[in-house]
Amino acid sequence: MFRSIGFVATLAVLCIVLASVEASPALMRQLVKEYTVNTKKRLAEDGICRADNLAVRREWGDLHNQTRLEYIKALKCLTTLPSKIDPVKVPGARSRYDDFEAAHIINTRLIHATGLFLAWHRHFVQLFETALREECGYSGYQPYWDWARYANLPLKSNPLYDGSATSISGNGRYIPNRNATLAPLPMPLKDPPALYIPPGTGGGYIYDGPILDWELHLGPVITDYVRNGQHVNPNPRSDGLGYNPRHLIRDFNNTLLQNNTYSVVTSMLVNLTSGTSPSKSDLD
């Protein structure tokens, strides 16, 4: 009898867990819908920003193939345009794409784990999107990668990185027997904490997809992550801004994404707040 009760209880808990897992994507869609409706309500009926001319950024998997191809073409276009950044400050920059990479390298320790994180990256993405549209003829808007959608799925299930003609190429060639790494967090601290990351599923040069021949010019800034993987020449400058041409290495690792599920994300959105209500003394 007790075994039967235990079995029923276990089954009930399992059903609740499964229902929660299934409900989380639906809850995310509902939250996005509510956000969209509320945002449009707050916009003026006339002026530059109106409900009828909002730009919508979509997840890569929701884009039509033609839009993906157009984005990839514009991305490549940025690598053919001359750099506009100060060559004294960033002597390694050779293209407009390098300009954006350099901006992120220069500001990395100031724009992560600080109050600048969201505002800086929103502005950065807007500038990158504008360059794609105004300098390279892209008619869409900057797509994004929904981590939760692919958190516990095989790599090839993500159309952004599946190595097809409508992806931004796939993983790097697998290199076995590599060491795990301690990756310091990009924070404005002398000795920032580090994340332990086991070896990933690649580690070598990318070998398929439309950006197979992509060439990097800047970095790396830190060179002691992996000591028995694909060799990378150190940058001639300690800040990583010198000229250091090489092909693209990828090492996809799902370890840090496994907790970025819809259940976790929606729980944060629903249950956490960004601050506290002001007290009476604050208002006086």
Topology:
Layout: H1 2-41, H2 65-78, H3 96-107, H4 117-136, E1 172-174, E2 181-184, E3 194-197, E4 203-206, E5 215-216, E6 246-247, H5 262-271, H6 280-283
Antiparallel strand pairs: 1-4, 2-3, 5-6
Secondary-structure class? mainly alpha
Instruction: Choose one word for the global shape.
Output: globular
Number of helices: 6
What distance lies between the first and last C-alpha atoms, to the nearest angstrom? 65 Å
The proportion of strand residues reads: 5-15%
Largest sheet, strands/sense/barrel = 2 strands, antiparallel
Helix-strand string:
HHHHEEEEEEHH
Helix content: 25-40%
Unreliable segments of 5+ consecutive residues: 1-22, 277-284
Largest beta sheet: what is the strand line-up? 1-4
Q: Based on DSSP secondary structure assignment, what is the total number of beta strands?
A: 6
The chain-level mean pLDDT equals 86
Cα-atom radius of gyration: 23 Å
